[in-house]
Write a structure and sequence with these properties.
TMEM106; 2 domains; Transmembrane protein 106A; membrane; transmembrane helix; alpha+beta; 10 strands
């Protein structure tokens, strides 16, 4: 400590007091002995200049061992430059571990929460019923839609809207509100029914005439599926073409299509 102060200034500057002179501070021994009775001063260990040594008087308290209490929080203690407290250990290792943990955590969050595609796959016609009017054909169909969730979090299907077209004309539509929960990496099926009314004259003849052996009509199915995940909603569109026998009722069971890899 003495060598440090000797490099900063002369002996005259070292002996100069940082605090203004106070008549209440007497001799060193008297002030130090009266520390317990004084209320306006904070005590510290008195500094004495050793004979023949390289020590110096403390410039803060001038060796009295006391400083004014109002300056207690304004004065800073002198710590040697070589003190181990000024040399934090394992700093590089701690910083490397902190950065590594942050990178790994961020990568895992992005991997598991990154939105993946919901796969919609029409599974075909499940059943159909046919009735004839005077000039139209009422064709009620029930179809199947397979839904595959490729995410690592569940999704909820909230709405399904279907439109059926025949010869580019709208013949039936339906909109259903759903609440279907699909688990992570799982698949589910939705059955939807649409009542169609075909008023085309040629189609009516194809479906009603017994002389015609093939009674098939082509229905163009267009749909929109609304689903939500992580407080976010999205819509997916799909379409399919179904060949329906418009002469007799038909029922074809379908199994659940496994989730694509």
């Amino acid at each position: 400590m003495g060598e440090t102060f000797s490099q900063l200034g002369s002996q005259k500057d070292e002996d100069k007091s940082i605090l203004p002179p106070d008549p209440a501070i007497g001799s060193k021994s008297a002030n130090y002995s009266s520390t317990g009775s004084s209320k306006a001063f904070c005590s510290c260990v008195p500094c004495e200049r050793a004979a023949g040594g390289s020590f110096m008087t403390c410039p803060t308290c001038q060796g009295s061992g006391e400083i004014p209490r109002e300056l207690e929080k304004q004065l800073v203690a002198l710590i040697p430059y070589g003190d181990q407290r000024l040399k934090p250990r394992h700093t590089k290792l701690s910083m490397f571990l902190a950065v590594f943990i942050c990178l790994v955590t961020s990568s895992l969050i992005v991997f598991f929460l990154f939105p993946r595609t919901i796969v919609l796959q029409p599974a075909g016609l499940n059943s159909s019923t046919v009735t004839f009017g005077e000039a139209d054909v009422c064709l009620n169909i029930t179809s199947i839609l397979n839904i595959s969730n490729n995410n690592y979090y569940p999704v909820t299907v909230t709405q399904l809207t279907i439109e059926v077209l025949h010869l580019a004309l709208l013949v039936g539509q339906v909109s259903d509100s759903l609440l279907l929960h699909i688990s992570p990496l799982a698949s589910e099926q939705i059955f939807y029914a649409v009542a169609n009314r075909i008023q085309d004259e040629n189609t009516y003849k194809i479906c009603s005439w017994l002389k015609i052996k093939v009674h098939h009509v082509v229905l163009h199915i267009q749909g929109t599926l609304t689903y939500s995940y992580l407080s976010h909603s999205e819509q997916l569109a799909f379409q399919s073409y179904e060949y329906v026998d418009c002469r007799v009722n038909k029922s074809v069971p379908h199994l659940l299509v496994p989730r694509p890899p």
